[in-house]
Structures are given as C-alpha cells and as structure tokens.
Amino acid sequence: MDSASLSCARLTGWTIGAVVLQILGLSLFVLGFFPVKPTLHGVSGSESYYKPKCDDVNVGQDSVANHRNLPPEELRSLYKELSGIPPVFDRLIVMVIDGLPAEFVLGRDDLSPTKEMMESMPYIQALLSSGNAIGFHAKAAPPTVTMPRLKAIVSGAIGGYLDVAFNFNTQAFHDDNLLAQFSYIGWKMIMLGDETWIKLFPDLFTRQDGVTSFFVKDTVDVDFNVSRHLKSELSADDWDLLILHYLGLDHVGHIGGRRCNLMMPKLKEMDEVIEKIHTSVILDDNNGSKQTLLMVVSDHGMTDNGNHGGSSYEETDSVALFIRLGGHVPKSAPLKFQTISQVDIVPTLALLFSVPIPKNNVGVVLLEILDFLTGVLYVSGLIRNVWYLFVIRKSYPLCNQYSNVYIFFLKQLNFIKNEGQCPNYKIENRNINRSKKK
Ligand SMILES: *[C@@H]1O[C@H](CO)[C@@H](O)[C@H](O)[C@H]1NC(C)=O
Ligand SMILES: *[C@@H]1O[C@H](CO)[C@@H](O)[C@H](O)[C@H]1NC(C)=O
Ligand SMILES: *[C@@H]1O[C@H](CO)[C@@H](O)[C@H](O)[C@H]1NC(C)=O
Known about the structure:
Elements: H1 2-33, H2 61-68, H3 72-83, E1 91-97, H4 102-106, H5 115-120, H6 122-129, E2 133-139, H7 146-155, H8 163-166, H9 178-184, E3 189-194, H10 196-200, E4 207-211, H11 221-227, H12 230-235, E5 241-246, H13 248-256, H14 263-285, E6 292-297, H15 313-316, E7 317-323, E8 338-341, H16 345-352, H17 367-370, H18 375-392, H19 399-412, H20 423-437
Parallel strand pairs: 1-5, 1-6, 2-8, 3-4, 3-5
Antiparallel strand pairs: 2-7, 6-7
Helix pairs in contact: 18-19
C-alpha cells in the first residue's frame, strides 16, 4: 500500500516533469525555428543621404516628414541631387525566371554549364561572354519558396521561416521596399506574371496581368500569358518599371525535375524572351532618350527532383544577371562568376536609380555594378550603404557601438585595404575618434 502510493506519487512527478520538459523543448524549437525578426518601421527618406549623428537616434525624422509631402517629381530630383550619383538608367525591366538554378546559366564552381544548356540559351551566353551582361550566383536565404524570396528581392531584408506558412496566403507587404520607393518618386509600374506580386502590392501597378501558380502541371499558359503582352509593353514608353515573372520553368521542375525533357525547350523559350527584350528595347534605346537596364533573376533554385524550400546548394543557388551595362563592363569578363547574396540586388538598384535604400536592407552594394561610377562617387555610394546599416541599428544609440559596427562594415567592404584610394575614409576615421572620446 505504502509502496504503491509512493510509486504513484513518483509517477505523477515524472509525468509532470516530462510534460514540462516537452513544453520547454517545444518553445525552444518554436523560438529557434521561427524567431521573431525585429524590423524597423517607417520608410527611408532623404535623411538616409545624411550621416547619422552619434547622439541622434531619430536620424532626420523631420526631413522625412517634410519631404514625403513633396510631389513625386520634386522628390525624384531631390533624391538625385542628394545622392550625387548621375543617373545611368531611366527604366528597369526585372525578369524573374521562377526556380532557375544559376548552374544552368553560369555553371558550377569552375565548370561551365553543360553543352546542352549552353546551346539552349545561346543569346544569354553570348551576352555574358561579350561582357554585355554580368552574372552572379545570388545566394537565396531559406525558405526557398517564392513569396519570401520576392520580399527579399524588393526589401533587402531576410524574412523569418514563418513566411513559408503564409506562402499560399499572401498578404500585402508594408515594410519599406524598392517598389514603394519607386512609387514615391512617381514611377509607373507594370506587372505581368505570378500573381504573388499583385497580392504583395495591390493597387501599385498601372497595368497588370496576374498568372496563378496553382496549376503546377501547366507549363505553357503560365508563360504564354506573360509573353503575349511583351510586344505591346515593350513598345509602350509610359512605364518606368516592368516586372515579368515566368513560372513555367519552376513548373517543369515540379513535373520532372532538373532533367525533365521539357527543361531545355523552356530554357530556350526564356532565352528568346531575353533576346526579344534586348533587341527591341535596349538596343533600340541607343538612339532614344531612355536608357533601360534589364535584370534577370530567379527567386530560388531547385533540387534534382525539382523541389525547393530548403537550404541545400541546389535550392539556394539562384541567378542574378545585369544586362546592358554598355561599355561600362570591365574588359576582362571574369571566368568564375562571383557569389553574392540575393539581397545585395536591393541597395545596388537603389543607388543606380537614386532612391533611398529600404530601411531594413542588409545587402551590400555590388561593387562590380557600380564600378563605372568613378572615384568619389563610387566611394560615396559605398559609404552611404554603410550608413544604412547604421540606421538599421539605430535602436542601439550608444556611440561606441555605432563605431564598432561601422568599422566592422568598413572592413567587410574592403575599405580599409583600399584606404589609399578612399578620400572619405580619413573623415570617417576622425568621426570615429571623436565618438570614442565621448
Ligand atoms: C491565361 O489567360 C487566360 C485568358 O485571359 C485565362 O483564362 C487563363 O486562366 C490564364 N492562365 C493562367 C495560368 O493564369
Ligand atoms: C531609332 O531608330 C529607328 C531607325 O533607325 C527609328 O525607327 C526609331 O524611331 C528611333 N527611335 C527613337 C526613339 O528615336
Ligand atoms: C584622436 O584622439 C586623440 C586623443 O583621444 C587625439 O590626440 C587625436 O588628435 C585625435 N585625432 C583626430 C584625427 O582627431
């Protein structure tokens, strides 16, 4: 009797202990796997062109409020003036090829893509080898599914894993991002393709034709519905940003994996779209007034079986191509394509088109793209990028923390190594010195 009640009490104790342990483990899992990501609210404005002061936590709040009320045209010229970077391009075409692994275009490690792939994308290969395009392996952060990747491509922030859960129930996106910045300066935007964009940015596009990604077996209509508007949109000149999101290649992957027999024809189709854009817009620009930049990106890659979502090399190896950097491209096109982070596209585009870098951006400016911005302009572009990383951390008002973060990022950008070429570095150095004294 006595021993029975004892073992009963012990059993209860063990049970309670086990339940508590389970709850602890579950919370640890949830907090670790779905960490709450702090984001800065609000939108970058003209204040981001000024250096934050040590004791000024609310950097330029007033200027934001004042300048946001400017008409778009005036805001546009204000940003141009403040940025000091001459506008190189007037309009932007972003072509998203869903699920295209960079390996198909740029190869892997030191190896070129297979002969079959090179022959399926002859135009893009010619652009790359002639130096009319620069290609990057753009590392996508997991989860490698479309919606969180699109958010990263426009905001420069890396979202939480929880975004996977919302992938099929996309809500409007309110964090600071490039498209919002473009709309403040009065850009007209057109969206053709995956309707995720329209769910993220309702009411933003002047013209749109959303394609549903629901029918994964459909590899023809999803792309035909985009390409059917190409002729008219490419000859229209009332837009500043044209987004094309082709879903077909991803669907081919879901049907038969990387080696599906539909893959090569699909690559060829994509290559033809790029050729069409290049010949009808970009080459035609040469006698016109508008200069257009074409970016070809993929949101994520795919495994051999055509799946994606995880963090393997095959899934995260997405591509970013900048096409038409004219004579600005370095003469010796690199044999080995660099690996960047997918979010690096964001500050680079922001600098190229003179809009403030979105507030939560963690990407860094791609030096190769801004290479043609000579001397001081180029350096000031970099410094501005560092400022943003400061601004992201403005919740830590301690000056010495600013300096540490600052030095860290300067090192990251190889600044200190190139000190000799960097006239502004000394100035920054002095400021760091001053801040340490405080
Ligand atoms: C393509 O467009 C047609 C006609 O507008 C529409 O019926 C069809 O559902 C669209 N296809 C997809 C995949 O959205
Ligand atoms: C460019 O040149 C072609 C013919 O060379 C001409 O038809 C076209 O109108 C020109 N475009 C502009 C914008 O001047
Ligand atoms: C940096 O600070 C030291 C003392 O803290 C001072 O002697 C030196 O002149 C300062 N350098 C600059 C460039 O301000």
